[in-house]
TrEMBL record:
It catalyses: Thiol-dependent hydrolysis of ester, thioester, amide, peptide and isopeptide bonds formed by the C-terminal Gly of ubiquitin (a 76-residue protein attached to proteins as an intracellular targeting signal). The keyword Hydrolase applies. The gene is USP3. Belongs to the peptidase C19 family. The lineage of its organism: Eukaryota, Metazoa, Chordata, Craniata, Vertebrata. Keywords: Hydrolase, Metal-binding, Protease, Thiol protease, Ubl conjugation pathway, Zinc, Zinc-finger. Pfam families: UCH, zf-UBP. This is Ubiquitin carboxyl-terminal hydrolase.
Length: 476
């Protein structure tokens, strides 16, 4: 929201202000009364925020765009001859960073080609998901091969643009910024990439993620995939991106699974189908429904929730198979979930069971580590053992006898881990495999790691890809 004095003054954040209107903790937005991410006008002390409930976010600029003009002037200076010394220092820094990023492979020296992502302020949830998706080869390659979309023309073409409200920028493309980010991650740069342009677009089209509070990585992943799917369906600037899937994609027609309309690369890669079977316990009426999915959310069985480490001796270790079995086992619905039986014509007690009718190319498994209690959201910190290769999904299929055993095997590609005690705090990192080597992605830091370390991680989201033997034999 704009301050009435914005044409002659500037709004600043509390960490840089001298608190003209009391302690920052006492500030709240004059529009929505939120005390998150407050901004204060130095002229009239009006307070506004970056909350999505205000339908906009405060930008550090004037109505005449004076701050933007200063920024453009500084940008021109940066491109002048005065930057020569800066480039020289940066080159020396890159050389020293390169020396620290060398590793031994078969007796010879090689450089780590992976690039980290800068943390823009509690954006580790986004960085962990982006790094994981960048290592889903088929998914990543599709976006990197898309033609670029030029969002700017005229005077701003080819130049870095600082986003301010005075520009009135509504022509944003999530697909394009996602494509640029993926292209930057495996170019061998020794300097961390800043995903600020992508984050700006996310702020514009996903208001739940505005601001700099910690967010749930799984929730972000679902929003990201859903919005990519929708934009690919509709195209951007009149150019249909889904045409690229139809003409150039190596994905077979049988691999496509529609979610909310036509198929895209999102549903072709992550899309599977569940059969939801409900039986009335009074009359025996059976109801079946097929539901498309992009990921499966699995409960950690209650009997394992006190086991926090693999080496703890009190009882067996919880495995991913235990979580999958709990998800697909026959379950009697409680009193709050009574089934409306069309034969009995009233709500009755019933049982429910899930079967997997179609497996996806990439199986994304979300372990439900956060649970609401009466007053807060607690974390289930149980260690869950998971296979790095050969995850067999045949026994969870609706018709396992009609499936080739080789077609039900999956290998681990990436793991997202939450460190800390609560969903609104803590830190996210990711492990992913690339060309046979495992990497640990911790925002701007990327380090080589091993399978043993990955196997000890307390996984939050697991990405499994089709077993290599299957992928190699199948012409996609």
């Amino acid at each position: 929201m704009e301050c009435p004095h914005l044409s002659s003054s500037v709004c600043i954040a509390p960490d840089s202000a001298k608190f003209p209107n009391g302690s920052p903790s006492s500030w709240c937005c004059s529009v929505c009364r939120s005390n998150k991410s407050p901004w204060v006008c130095l002229t009239c002390s009006s307070v506004h925020c970056g909350s999505y409930r205000c339908d906009d976010f405060v930008v550090n600029d004037t109505k005449l765009g004076l701050v933007q003009k200063v920024r453009e002037h500084l940008q021109n200076l940066e491109n002048s001859a005065y930057t020569a010394d800066r480039h020289r220092k940066r080159k020396l820094l890159e050389n020293s960073s390169l020396n620290s990023k060398l590793l031994k492979v078969n007796g010879s020296t090689a450089a780590i080609c992976a690039t980290g992502l800068r943390n823009l302020g509690n954006t580790c949830f986004m960085n962990a998901i982006l790094q994981s998706l960048s290592n889903i080869e088929q998914f990543c390659c599709y976006f990197k091969e898309l033609p670029a979309v030029e969002l700017r023309n005229g005077k701003t073409a080819g130049r870095r643009t600082y986003h301010t409200r005075s520009q009135g920028d509504t022509s944003v493309s999530l697909v394009e910024e996602f494509r640029k980010t993926l292209c930057a991650l495996w170019q061998g740069s020794q300097t961390a990439f800043s995903p600020e342009s992508l984050f700006y677009v996310i702020w514009k089209i996903m208001p739940n993620f505005r601001g700099y509070q910690q967010q749930d990585a799984h929730e972000f992943m679902r929003y990201l995939l859903d919005h990519l799917h929708l934009e690919l369906q509709g195209g951007f600037n009149g150019v249909s991106r889904s045409a690229v899937l139809q003409e150039n994609s190596t994905l077979s027609a049988s691999s496509k699974c529609c979610v909310n309309g036509a198929s895209t690369v999102v549903t072709a890669i992550f899309g599977g189908i569940l059969q939801n079977e409900v039986n009335c316990l009074i009359c025996g009426t059976e109801s079946r429904k097929f539901d498309p999915f992009l990921d499966l959310s699995l409960d950690i069985p209650s009997q394992f929730r006190s086991k926090r480490s693999k080496n703890q001796e009190n009882g067996p270790v919880c495995s991913l198979r235990d979580c999958l079995r709990s998800f697909t086992d026959l379950e009697e619905l409680d009193e709050t979930e009574l089934y409306m039986c069309h034969k009995c014509k009233k709500k009755q007690k019933s049982t429910k069971k899930f079967w997997i009718q179609k497996l996806p190319k990439v199986l994304c498994l979300h372990l439900k580590r956060f649970h609401w209690t009466a007053y807060l959201r607690n974390k289930v910190d149980t260690y869950v053992e998971f296979p790095l290769r050969g995850l067999d999904m045949k026994c969870y299929l609706l018709e396992p006898e009609n499936s080739d055993p080789e077609n039900c095997l999956y290998d681990l590609a990436a793991v997202v881990v939450h460190h800390g005690s609560g969903v609104g705090s803590g830190h996210y990192t990711a492990y992913a495999t690339h060309e046979g080597r495992w990497f640990h992605f911790n925002d701007s830091t990327v380090t080589l790691t091993d399978e043993e370390t990955v196997g000890k991680a307390k996984a939050y989201i697991l990405f499994y890809v089709e077993h290599q033997a299957r992928a190699g034999s199948e012409k996609l």
